[in-house]
Design a protein that fits this description.
The complex is a heterodimer of chains A (211) and B (506). Chain A is of the alpha/beta class and 211 residues long. Helix content of chain A is 30%, strand content 27%. Chain A has one domain: P-loop containing nucleotide triphosphate hydrolases (Rossmann fold). Chain A contains six helices and ten strands, in the order βββαββββαααβαβαβ. In chain A, the strands form two sheets. A five-stranded antiparallel β-sheet of chain A has the order 2-1-4-5-6, covered by helices on one side. Chain A has a five-stranded parallel β-sheet with strand order 7-8-9-3-10, with helices on both faces. In chain A, helix 3 packs across helix 4. Chain B has one domain: MetI-like (MetI-like fold), CATH 1.10.3720.10. Chain B starts with a helix and ends with a helix. The relative contact order of chain B is 0.13. The chains are: A alpha/beta (211), B mainly alpha (506).
């Protein structure tokens, strides 16, 4: 179980997060709801260990990952997955190599096979050798999802994954996620400003408090 | 450890200017002897230098800016060839270009400030082309379309849209042309125009006194500090606060036959002074000399030029990547920009001032000279000084590219299991490849052509292509110059080709 206790974060004199506490279990999806600028992405980055909070604690299975301003377990050792709003696909790698990137250093053949399986689950196996620059927004998000899920993360963070895609692609992505997430033993955090996303994907919701 | 390494690199970068200033401060007594003489000569020197600088900027903006706009805006037969030909003068030192024009035309114009300005303008036009082409490619065409729909005519669009949007690259181009002009005493000597660099060189060589040269050099450094502050202010003023989101692909305008002819004529006119005219005479003179050139000298010069340039390139690459890792990976992008600005100072200073700093540090009774007594008869001072001078050529593209890489990319690498170092090597470094290629090409090209530093800091019996070209040009041996210039062009051909590829990709 991933748990955040009394997380506060401020930049200069601006308070961005104030005493946030939440938790989520494997196989459950928790939607973090809030308007733009409410600190959802900041909270997600703190949970991932990419930035340190001003105060508060992040725990995984009661093991402290972040304590106050100290990141005790660096992000690469947490085995979490993160899907960015802008996909953040590596432009120097093609589709399949993006998916292979985060896989444990097994043999290249095994890694390739695993990546192909994930591309198949996402319905984009035909794109395996394409350059990132040639993909549409929806295809990019599917690759980003495959990349995040391929290493079997303990926790999956989805940072506004549907904000840059149209309605049809959004529906397709939600269908894919509803098929894939229950099968994975992953605690999912969905950051969104859209209550419909939360209703269609999440088991619970957490409303970001207004500061 | 990281902080120590960072401080050490900063010390090395800032050391030349600091050394000259402290030396001048400790030898203030020279002011009483030479102050009046220098002060009386200074206004005329500065006026001539400014005159040459203005001519150089104007000519380079025309010869580099026009083809940049034409090859960016229009689709016409031979567009990519012209892009390459505009870059061709990068392969010829300015002194050789001036010598060629003097020999070919026998005109007095090339012994005047305007002629000297033209030579510098031709030599620097490729840089203006490079900067403007990249800037134009990054300017969204929607701005132009918006201006059109708002009823602005071509002239209004040029004045109120394109000039403000291109203010930064135009300013950078002008600063670069001025730095090249200010640094080069050899071309001024060939033209017989007494610019600041030539005066500094003559004063130093004539008196053989470091303290007098340092006194004059320190006045340049102080002037440059003021200019730098002003330029930084201008950069901040003109940097767009709301950068355009998204860059739709540019659609080049397909020309009708008549338009294409006009564009072709304009392109031919733009590449004639820098490529067609010089290459015609170079080949003509080189064939006169064919078979009689001492090939052994040619091979030795080529080898020493290439090895020195390669070492300088590796050194600058190593320094800049360490800086990028130490500062950018630590999310201190502002510090990286500050270090780049400090390194730019070494480029903006006349190369002779840099030489002077190295001369003092290795010849006077300094700690460095005591630690390395035999340092000044090796290539080390030459390589270090050249690397310091051209460091911004790689740091600037790196900083620019880094500012365009989304922060989420490195974060994605970290979340996917990369450590800080591994994320740098596996995610950031491949994304920086285009910047590394551009920077490396420019540094290699500039090192191959470098004359001032090589002339002063070379070890005993060291020779290079550029030095030989300088010697042949000053002794009016046009055929010999032509052979060495052709070889230089052949060696530099590949880096220029990579630069052209980069422009096309942009």
């Amino acid at each position: 179980m991933l748990e955040a206790r009394s997380i506060c974060f401020s930049e200069g004199k601006t308070n961005i997060l104030n005493n946030i506490s939440l938790k989520n279990e494997p196989k459950k999806c928790l939607a973090i709801l809030g308007p733009s600028g409410s600190g959802k992405t900041t909270l997600l980055r703190i949970l991932c260990g990419l930035i340190a909070p001003t105060s508060g604690t992040v725990l995984w299975e009661n093991k402290v990952l972040t304590q106050g301003t100290k990141i005790l377990v660096s992000p690469e050792k947490r085995f979490f997955g993160l899907v960015f709003q802008d996909s953040a696909l590596f432009p120097h790698l093609n589709v399949i190599n993006n998916v292979i990137f985060g896989l444990p250093r097994a043999t290249p053949t095994e890694n390739k096979k695993c990546a192909q399986e994930w591309l198949q689950k996402m319905g984009i196996e035909r794109l395996a050798n394409r350059d990132i620059s040639t993909l549409s927004g929806g295809e990019k998000q599917r690759v980003a999802l495959a990349r995040a899920l391929a290493p079997s993360p303990r926790v999956l963070f989805l940072d506004e994954p549907f904000s840059s895609v149209d309605r049809i692609v959004r529906t397709e992505l939600i269908t894919v996620l509803n098929q894939v997430l229950p099968a994975a033993n992953t605690a999912t955090f969905l950051v969104t400003h859209d209550e419909r996303d939360a209703a269609e994907l999440a088991d619970e919701t957490f409303q970001m408090p207004q500061i | 450890m990281k902080a120590f390494l960072l401080l050490l690199l900063l010390f090395i970068i800032a050391q030349p200017a600091a050394l000259v200033l402290s030396y001048a401060f400790n030898n203030l007594s020279v002011y009483s002897d030479w102050g009046t003489t220098i002060q009386s000569a200074l206004p005329e020197l500065l006026a001539t230098t400014a005159q040459v600088g203005i001519f150089a900027i104007c000519f380079s903006l025309i010869l580099g800016g026009l083809p940049a706009w034409l090859t960016h805006r229009f689709s016409f037969p031979g567009r990519q060839v012209f892009s390459f030909l505009v870059l061709a003068p990068l392969a010829v030192p300015a002194v050789a270009l001036l010598g060629l024009y003097q020999e070919a035309t026998n005109s007095e114009v090339f012994s005047s400030p305007s002629g000297l300005g033209l030579a510098f303008g031709i030599a620097c036009a490729p840089y203006v082309f490079l900067l403007l082409r990249v800037a134009l490619a990054r300017t969204s065409p929607t701005f132009r379309e918006a201006a059109k729909t708002l009823g602005l005519g071509p002239l209004q669009r040029f004045l109120f849209l394109h000039v403000p949007l291109l203010a930064i690259p135009l300013l950078a181009s002008s600063a670069l042309v001025d730095s090249e002009m200010l640094s080069d005493f050899a071309t001024s000597e060939r033209a017989g125009v007494n610019t600041f660099s030539l005066a500094l060189h003559n004063l130093w060589m004539g008196t053989q006194r470091n303290d007098i040269a340092v006194f004059l050099a320190s006045s340049v450094i102080i002037a440059l500090i003021v200019t730098f502050a002003f330029v930084i202010f201008l950069f901040q003023k003109f940097t767009p606060q709301n950068s355009a989101t998204g860059h739709p692909r540019h659609q080049r305008m397909r020309c009708r036959p008549f338009q294409a002819t006009l564009v072709l004529i304009a392109c031919i006119a733009a590449v004639t002074p820098g490529f067609l005219f010089p290459i015609f005479h170079t080949i003509k003179w080189a064939t006169q000399k064919a078979g009689t050139s001492p090939l052994k000298n040619l091979a030795n010069d080529t080898f020493s030029s290439v090895t020195t340039s390669a070492i300088v390139l590796l050194l600058t690459l190593a320094i800049s990547l360490v800086l990028v890792f130490l500062l950018h990976a630590q999310k201190q992008a502002n510090h990286l920009r500050a270090v780049t600005a400090v390194s730019l100072f070494n480029y903006a200073m006349p190369a002779l001032v840099l030489v002077l700093a190295f001369f003092i540090s290795t010849n006077e009774q300094t700690t460095l000279a005591r630690v390395f007594p035999s340092l000044n008869n090796t290539r080390i001072p030459l390589i270090t000084a050249t690397a310091l001078r051209f460091l911004p050529f790689i740091l600037l593209p790196l900083v620019d590219t880094l500012s365009r890489i989304p922060s989420s990319l490195a974060m994605a690498g970290r979340v996917l299991g990369c450590s800080e170092k591994s994320a740098f090597a596996r995610v950031l470094l491949p994304s920086l490849k285009p910047a590394i290629v551009v920077g490396s090409s420019l540094i290699f090209v500039e090192c191959m052509k470098e004359i001032t530093i090589a002339q002063a800091l070379r070890p005993f019996e060291y020779s290079a292509l550029s030095l030989r070209i300088f010697n042949y040009t000053t002794t009016h041996q046009a055929p010999e110059t032509a052979v060495w210039v052709l070889v230089l062009q052949l060696v530099i051909f590949y880096p220029i080709l990579r630069l052209q590829e980069f422009i096309e990709k942009e």
